[in-house]
Specification:
134 residues; mainly alpha; 2 strands
């Protein structure tokens, strides 16, 4: 058992591999590093609990492949586009209903440019953010 634990690749050895360096070029280093540590922790726990872990699964190439899969999964957005095939237009599980193009354009403009949130354009002085909803 101890011999198999010692055969697990070290974090720095994995970080220095070309395939892992390619991941760091694509994803934040902290995400890849977390994937390395999580993969090694999982393998260590499996070995310590007596699960059958085939020797090739702890080789650096196999571990790097697991790291790649974890990194890709971790970087995948949690909120994703789906198809509403339920036949219900305002579906609470699918984000209610789609927004009108005009509303989306207004959101885009409000988030992309500076605006007069607390600035009164007529007087050139500080205004109230609540005046926009009165």
């Amino acid at each position: 058992m101890n011999e198999r634990l010692r055969r697990l690749p070290k974090v720095d050895a994995l970080l220095n591999r070309e395939d892992v360096q390619a991941l760091i070029d694509q994803y934040p280093r902290r995400v890849v590093l977390a994937a390395i540590r999580d993969t090694l922790d999982d393998l260590r726990q499996r070995l310590l609990s007596g699960q059958n872990v085939p020797p090739p699964d702890i080789e650096p190439t196999a571990v790097a492949a697991q790291v790649k899969n974890r990194t890709i999964a971790a970087a995948r957005p949690v909120f994703r586009r789906v198809v509403n095939g339920a036949g219900v237009i305002i579906h609470t599980n699918l984000g209610r209903s789609c927004m009108a193009e005009e509303a989306l354009e207004a959101i885009h403009l409000a988030g992309r440019y500076y605006g007069n949130l607390e600035f009164d354009l007529a007087t050139g002085r500080r205004g109230s953010r609540y005046s926009h909803v009165e």
